[in-house]
Protein 1
Amino acid sequence: MWDYTDKVKEHFLKPRNAGEVKDANAVGEVGSMACGDALKLTLKVDEKGEIEDAKFQTFGCASAIASASALTEMIKGKSLKEAEKISNQDIADFLGGLPKEKMHCSVLGRQALEAALANYKGETVKEQEGEIVCECFGVTDLEIERAVRENNLTTVEEVTDYTKAGGGCESCHDTIREIIAKVRDEERPVARPKLSNIKKIKMIEETIESEIRPSLQQDGGDVELIDVVGNRVLVATRGACATCRASEITLKSLVEAKLHEFVSPELVVEEVKE
Amino acid sequence: MTTVYMDNNATTQVAPEVLEAMLPYFHDLYGNPSSAHTFGGQVAHRIRDAREQVADLLGADSPDEIIFTSCGSESDNTAIMSALQTQEGKNHIVTTRVEHPAVKVLCGHLAKNGYRVAEIPVDREGRLDMDQYKESLTQDTAIVSLMWANNETGVIFPVEEAAQMARSRGILFHTDAVQAVGKIPIDLRNSAIDMLSISGHKLHAPKGVGVLYVRKGTKYAPFLIGGHQERGRRGGTENAASIVAVGKACELAGKRMNDENTRVKDLRDKLEQEILAKVSRSRVNGGEAERLPNTSNISFESVEGEAILLLMDEFGICASSGSACTSGSLQPSHVLRAMGVPFTMAHGSIRFSLSIYNTEEEVDFVIEKVPPIIETLRELSPFWKPEEGACATGT
C-alpha cells in the first residue's frame, strides 16, 4: 500500500474543483488512457489576466487525482505570471510530498497547466518536440532532459518515477543513462583558462554593471566594487542595501552567484563597512 | 469498521483449527525433530503426520514425495533449478506468459544466462494455446513449468493434458499449483505431473511455509544445501509449527472442498453477476474460461484500479487490482496484457477472491458499495461520456 500523506488522501477522497469550467478560455489536456493517467484542466482567465476559476478531470490513481485537485487550489486567484512559475515540486510540496514512484503525477499537473496557459495565449499546441526515447510511454528526450535538470535526477529509476520513461520494456534505459550523463556534464563547471588579475577585475566590473546593479537598483539599492584581492571581491553596499538586514543574503545569493556564473566559481564576496 | 476480506488469492486467514494445532510447537513441543531424545523425536512424528495430510490432499502415492520448503517461490525455484541441474545439456524451458513472478522472473533470469525460454501465449479469455504448447516441446526441453490456476483471473490450465504431452516426450513437468490446491480437487496418483508447488498461506496456514511435491523416481538436486533434513532434499531445521499447520490446513481443505465449489462459488457468481448488472461497461476477465470457484477479475472501463481500491478501503473492503499504479510498476498486469485486455479495461481491473469465511452479507455489502464508487470515479474521468455510456477516445 502506498504511503500517502493525509493531505493526499484528503484531496483524493474530497477532490476540489472536479469537473469542467463551463465558459473556459484555457484548456490543457495531457496524458492518455494507455499511459495510465490523463488530466484535463479547464480555466477561466479574467481580463486582468487572473485565473478566476479552475477545474479538472482526471483518469488515474489516487495521487493523480490529488495532484490535480491540489493544482486547481494553487492556481485559483493567481495571475498567469504567478501560475507559470509553478513547478511539479511545488505541487508535491503542497500535498506534503508524494511517494517518489508517484512524482510523475505532479509532473502531469505541471504539464496540463503549461498546456492550458499556452492554449490561453493562443499558441498552437506545440508539436511534440524532440525525439521519442521511451516508446512504451511516448516520452521524448527533451522531456527527460527537463525532468533531470529541474529535479536534479541522477538514476534511470528516478527518471522513471518522474516521467514514466523506462518503466515499460526497459529497452531505452541506455539512452536515458546517456541523457542523464549529458545533463550532468553540462552542469559541471567548465574549466576556464586562468584569468589575469586585470582581466578578472574587468570582468567583475562588467558583471556588476550589467548583471547585478540593475536588479539591485530596482529595489533602491546598489553595490560598489572597492577592491579585488586574489579571489576576494570586496564590495560596499549603497542605498537601501546599506541598511537592509538581508544584505548579506543578497551578497551571497545574487552578487556572488552572478560572479560565479560569469567570472569564476572561486570568487568570494565580502562586504566592506566604511 | 469491520473488514470485508476478499483478497484470498493474496493471502488467507489462518484457520482457527490450524492455529490451535500449531501453537504447542512454540512452547511445549519446541524440540528439534532431528534430536535423538524422545522430546525432539515426538516433533518428528508430527511432521510425518503432516506429510501424510499433504499427500492425502494431493492424492500422492507416498508421503515421501512431499518436501517442506519456506514458501511457494522456493518450491518453484527448487523444481526448475533441479530439472536444469540434473539434465545437463538440456537448455530449453517451456513456460507461459502469465506465470507468477516466482517462475516468470526466474525464467527471465535464466534466459540471460544461456537458457532458451519459450513463453506460451494465452487467448483473450486467458486459455493456453495448446497447439503452440505442443509445438514448443523439443528434445532439448529440460522442463515445462505451467501454473495450474492463474492467481489474477483464476483461469485453470489443462495441466493434466499438458503433463501427458510432456511425459510422452520424456520431458519433466512442474506445475505451480499455489492457487489451485485446496480450491479444486487434485489427484496426482493418476497424473503425469512430476513436480508441484504449494504455498501454505494461500490455504489458511501461516506465511513462511511451502511444499514441493516430487514424484518418486524423479531426478532431483536440492536447492538449499545443508543438513540431512527432508531426507537430504532440503537443508535447514524444519519449521515444525508451520509444517504441522500446513498439514492441518490440507486436511481441512479436503473436507471443505465441496463447500468451496458450491457455496463459495455461488457467492462469487452472485457478486460478479450483480456488479456486472449494476455497472455499465464492465466485464469479467477470463469469464468464459474454466475458472477457480473463488476468483473474479472484473474490469471497469475508464477508471483506474488503485483509486477504486482506496475508495473500497474506506468501507473496509479488501481486494486487489491489476492496474499499473497498485503494483508500483507503470504497466498493467502482465496477465491482462497477455490476454490482450485493452488499456481502457486493464487499468480498471479489480480482483475479488473469496474464501470459505466469506458470507452472503459481505457479498451483498460489496454489491451495494462498488457501483457508486465506480460512478464517482467515472464522473471525475475525462474519458467517460455518460450520454454514450461508453468511453471516448481511449488512446
Protein 2
Amino acid sequence: MSKLAVIRTAVFETDAIRLVAALSGSSDVYVETTQYFPYFSFVGRCTLPGLFGKRQTDVRCLIDAVNGHGATADRFDVDHEVTVDSSKIAVKLTAAEATAAAQRIVTHSLGRNLRVIARFEPDFDAATLVYKKFWIVGDGQIRALVDSVDGSMHPLRVRAA
Amino acid sequence: MSGTVIFFLILYYVVVLGIGYWAMQRGGSEDLEGYLLGGRKVGPMATALTLQSTSMSGYMFLGAGGLGFAQGYWALWFAAGDIGGGVLNLSVIGRRMRKLSQMMGALTSIEYLEKRYPSAAVRLFAGVLTIFLLGFYVVAQLIAGGKGMALVTGIPYPVALVIAVGIILIYTFMGGYLAVAYTDFFQSIVMLVGVMWILIAALTELGGLTSANYALNNIDPTLLSVWGKDLGFQGQWGVVAGALLVFSVGYMGWPHVVTRHMAMTRPETARRAGLWATIWNLFFVPAPYLVGILAILILPGLDDPEMAIFRVAEQLLPAAVTGLVMAAIMAAVMSTADSLLLQTGSIASRDIYERFINPNATEKQMVIVSRALVFAIAVVGYAVALVEPPSVFSIVIFATSVLGSAFLPAYVCAVWWRKANTPGALSSMIVGAGVAVFWEVAGLVDTTELAPMVTGVVSSTVTMIVVTLATQKIAPVPAYIHEVMDEAATVGRIPPRFLAATNSDLTNEAVAVDAALSKGGQNNE
C-alpha cells in the first residue's frame, strides 16, 4: 500500500459510468479498476515582456513521469489517498529530466501564445510527484479510461478474457 | 492622405492596444495564467478568426488585388483553392497530426519530422529549407508593410519601409499586449468588414457586378475569361492546376501551418473552428481579387497594380473608414510577419542551433540566436525591398510552391502511410524542393505550361513512393512508430460518437495504462 498525493477528484465513479454509458449506448457499463498516473508537478515564476515593461506571473507545469511529455497547467488542489501498489503506474523519468522538459515546454508555450522572442526565465521550485486518478470503465465490448479531474476520456484496447 | 485618415488610423491602434491591455489584465493574474499557460482557451470562433487574421498576409491585400487587376477573372482560380484549403488541410492531416505529435512529444513541426522519420539529416534539411523560404515570405510582408505605410502616411517609401520593419521587429521582440488572441479576433473582424466594405463600395460605384462585367467586356473581353488577359493561359491546365493547388493542398506542406495542428486544443474545437474558418473564407477570400478586377474600371491609370485595394479604398470610402480599414490591413501584415519571424527564429534556435551546434544551449543563447536571425532577415529583406522589390505575389507564390512541393508528401504520408520511411521522406523533400526551384528559376512554366507547384508535388510524391518501397528492407520503419500510428488511427471497434468524444491529450496515459493493465494486475512499480 502507498500514500499518494492525488490531484483532487471532480469526476467520481458514478459520473464516469454515466459518461461512458451515454456514449456507448450500453447499460452494462461498470468500473473495472482505477489507475494512478504519475506526473512531476512544477510551480514557479516567470517573466513576461510587454510594451509597458516586464511583469511576473506564476507558472505551473505537469510533466508526464512515464513518457516525459508535458503541458502547462491550471491551478489544482491535492488530496492524499492510500492505494495498492498495483494501481500505480511506474515512474520512469528522473526529476532532472522532468525539470529540463518543464523549462522547454513553458518557454515554448509562452513564446507561442505571446508570439514573441524573449527570455521568460522560468524559475521553478523543486518538482513534486503527484498522481491523477483514472477510472477504467467498460462493458466487455469497449473499454476507456476516464480522467477523474475533467471527465475527458480515451479508449483502451479490449483484451480477450 | 488626409489628416482624418491618419487620425482614425492612430485611433485604431489605440483601441487594439486597449483591448490587448484589458485582455492581459482581465481578472488579475489567474486568468492571464489560464490564457497563457493553462486550459482556459478562447472558443472555436475566436480561434478560427485569430488563425485567419494571422495567416491572411500582405498577399491578400497586395498580391491578390494586383493579380485581379492584371489578369481579370483568371485570378479567381487562386481564390477557389484558398477557400477550401483550410478545411482540406484540417481534414487530411489535422487530427492525426495533432495526436501523433502529442504522442511523440514534438513541439515544432521540424522536430516532428525528425521523430517520425528518425534521422538528423531530415531535421537539418527541413530546418534550413524552411528558414530560407520563410525568410522569402517575410520579405513579402516587409514590402507590403512599407508600401502600405507609404500610402497611408504620405512619407517616401524608403522611410516608410524603415518604419514598417522597425514596428515589425518591436512587435516580434516585445510581443505582449498587441499579440493576444483578442486583438487578433478584433483585427479579423475589422479586416473582413473593411474588405467587404471596399467591395460593396466598388460595386455600388460601378452600378453592380453585371454592369461592371459589361464595362470590362467593352475594355477587353478576355478579362472576363477563365484563361486570363489576352487568353494568356488558354488550355494551360498545368498552370491552372498550380493556381488551384498552391493555396489548397499547398497549405499541408507549410511547416508554420502544420505547427498550428500541433497546437490545436481539442479535436471538437478544431472541427468547429474549421467551420468558422470556411465561412470567413467564403466571404473574405474572393473579395480582394474582385476588388482588384473592379479597380481596372475605377482606376484605369493605376501605375502599381498591387496598390489596387489601398487606392480603391482611398478613392471610394469616407476618410474615417479608410483610416480604420488601412490600419487593420497594416496590422494584419505585421501580425503575419511577426508569426513568420517567430517560426523562423524558433526553427533556427531549437531545430538547428540547439540540435546540431550547442545541445546544452541556455535559454539566453537560444533567444540571442533567434533574435540575430530575425534581425538578419529584416536587414536583408529591407535591402531587397528597397533596391529592387519583387512583387508580393511572385514572392509568396514562389515560397509557397517550394514549401508545398518539399513537404506535402512528407507530412501527409507521416500520418497516413505506415511504410513511409526516412530515405523516402528525405529524398522526397530534396527532389520536391529542387524541381520546384529549378522550374521557377529556369522559366520552364512558359515552355511546359506546367506550374512549379504541379511538377514539384508530383515529383516529390513519386519519389516518396518509389524510394520508400525500394528501401523497406534496408530502412524499415521502427516498431514504435508503427505503434503510435496504429494508436493515432483508432483503438479497436469503437462507436463513432465515442471516438468523437476522445481526448487525444490522454493518448500517452492510455498507452501506459494499457501496458500496465496487460500485465494482469502485477505491481507496476
